[in-house]
Write a structure and sequence with these properties.
mainly alpha
Amino acid sequence: MITLESYLPIVGNDVVARLHQKARPLYGKRLVHVNSTYSGGGVAEMLERLVPLMNDLGMEVDWRVLPGPLDFFTITKRFHNGLQGEPFDLTDDMVELYLYQ
């Protein structure tokens, strides 16, 4: 498992100390990342490293996978792309599937 200590030879003590300082207001706070998968894709790759590092900084961080049918994740991907500027029309059927899965 990756730890902050693993990065010391690369970033040095000062960087790790600053991370601890910045994270201090979050000590003991609980945070849960929600994603569609534990493997594959950029978000899963980032969370695989980020979750243990956040825990090293004193937060209580976990990662959960949101279950759902393929159509549900097709809609969430369209939301994701829409937030990045890709236009799309949100239909009543999409809203129904998204809200009630």
